[in-house]
Amino acid sequence: MIVDLSALDVAHAAMQRDPADDARRLQFYAVLADSPLFLMLEGEPEGESVTPAVFNVAGVDYILVFDAEDRLAQFAGGAVPYASLAGRGLVEMIAGQGIGLGLNLDVAPSAMMLGPDAVDWLAATLGEAPAEATARPRAIHAPQAIPQALRDALAARLSHAGMLAASASLVAVEYDDGSRGHMLAFVDADPAAAPQLAAAVREALVFSGIEAGAVDVAFVRQPDDAAFIAHLAKGSGIPLGRPDVSRSAPAKSKTAGPGMNPDRPPILR
User: Fold this and answer.
1) What's domain 137-237's architecture?
2) What is the pLDDT of residues 206-235, one digit of tens each?
């Protein structure tokens, strides 16, 4: 029997091959945060409010999520009410409530239980805002010894950022306070998207296992910063992908209304 593996299945298998490898474990959490999840509900949604089905295991409450609608149906033995939302949104909603996640239980190779501590850690990691710095760059150089894992993580995190900035370049930088480091400079970014882009870079650092703060983020614009932008040619460009609008949207289900609009996440009760 051929089983179609999801991104979570692949990341989970890699983590299981070497449980002591922090990078593989972090990559699994990165995929979980970005995956659309289908949350099993206790009953039909009431407007935008939903009540997750809760199962108690050894005194700990768990809610059940699946990374595909058919996996949820397979577990439940048929169609059941559900809400759909991204992993990051779900863990942020339930963090601090002592609730764990039952992921793909009994229906996929990635089946596992994530306890409340893991949920709280992931929510805190995703919710931490980057710190602002005051030092100004005085010299720009080609980047040195950037781990491939970080390059890959940046490319993955910025894979849909092409609508938010014209380009991004990774450079080595010397600051006016004497410190040195690396910087990812976004050119002509949408000002409203700056926090989102900075958070994406921070997540790339965290989930690649690189020390936080190893890459600073700057936002520059033409023509005001033309001289600085000219020096970015010394850097390494990070591709900013665009979403594939040619792909068909998933079919809607009347029981899956809450959570299908990313701008209006469901209200958990």
Assistant:
1) 2-Layer Sandwich (3.30)
2) 888 775 557 899 999 999 999 999 999 999
In the chain, domain spans = 7-127+248-268, 137-237
Going by their DSSP bridges, the two strands 99-103 and 137-141 should be labelled as: unpaired
The rounded distance, in Å, linking the Cα atoms of 158 and 4 is 26
C-alpha span between 120 and 13 (Å, rounded)? 23
Answer whether 0.90 is exceeded by the pTM.
no
CA 188-179-125 angle, to 5 degrees, is: 65
Q: How far apart are CA 69 and CA 58, in angstroms?
A: 27
User: How far apart are alpha carbons 32 and 29 in whole angstroms?
Assistant: 5
CA angle 258-33-168, nearest 5°? 115
